Amino acid sequence: MRNKRRASQVLWIECIGFAILLAVSWLDELLRLPQLIFGGVAMPNWHEGALESLVIITVWVFVFVATRRILKRFYYLEDQLQMCGWCRKLKGQGDWVSLEDYLTKELGVETSLGICTNCGRRVFPEEEPSPSPHA
Fold first, then answer.
1. Same domain, 71 and 94
2. 3-state secondary structure at position 55
3. Which of 36, 60, 108, 110 has the highest CB neighbour count under 10 A?
4. What phi and psi values does residue 56 have, to the nearest 5 degrees?
5. CB of 20 within 8 A of CB of 14?
6. Helices (H), 32-87
7. Is the separation of the CB atoms in 15 and 64 below 8 Å?
């Protein structure tokens, strides 16, 4: 849950950054910053400000959507259950435990043992159903 809050903060910081860029773009047009800093003739150009705003908003949308997709992918990967490829133990809250312990500790589920049909046939091949004597 904490990581999702951080991801939300990343998106907000991203939005604030682009909003600042947008504000600076319009302050440039309103206050004529280049003319104040470097001198020269001050000629307001509202079309330039509008075009800059359009470019900033377009980039903002693409970056926001891409960041959100990446964060969703991280959520998906973060929710994956890790299993050791050798001993088949599962990673719980920091330690590696057996499947039965994991189900009990993490999910509150008790387990019982059984045997599926395919394994039953492999383990007990002689117990095939015998044909009916009347057939």
1. no
2. helix
3. 60
4. -60, -45
5. no
6. 33-38, 46-78
7. yes
Structure tokens at 58: 């377009």
pLDDT at 2: 61
Short-list 71, 65, 61, CA closest to 10:
71
Task: For residues 44 and 15, state if they share a domain.
Answer: yes
Q: Are 29 and 46 in contact (CB under 8 A)?
A: yes
As for how many domains the chain has, the answer is: 2
Per-residue pLDDT of the chain (135 residues; tens, 9 = 90+): 566 677 788 889 999 999 999 998 888 777 777 677 777 666 667 788 889 889 999 999 999 999 988 888 877 766 677 888 888 788 877 788 888 888 887 778 888 888 888 888 888 887 655 555 565
| pTM of the predicted protein model | 0.51
Q: Domain boundary at 78, 94, 115, which?
A: 78
The verdict on 6 and 66 lying in the same domain is yes
Contacts of 82 (CB under 8 A, 6+ apart): 90, 91
Place of tokens 């104040």: 36
